[in-house]
Amino acid sequence: MEISGIISAVIIGIIIGVLGRLVVPGRQRIGIIWTILVGILAAFIGAAIAHALNVDDTNGVDWIEWIIQIALAAVGVAALDRAKSRR
Fold first, then answer.
1. Are 14 and 41 in contact (CB under 8 A)?
2. At what angle do helices 3-23 and 32-52 cross, to 10 degrees?
């Protein structure tokens, strides 16, 4: 992976994190930095899952990959919020 690919993955991860946070109902008690980190991690894991399912390279927008990434980010945001609320 080249540096441009890593930079674009980080930017996409930020977007994925914000979208994942919007999907989770209610107020989350995690900061924006945690949201971004969860989004970046979800973007990388979602891309790997999409590649394994062979849906990562389609004509046009890769909607299935985006849906996988957003779902992973939503799960990550909800799990982190739940873990922080127990403290």
1. no
2. 110
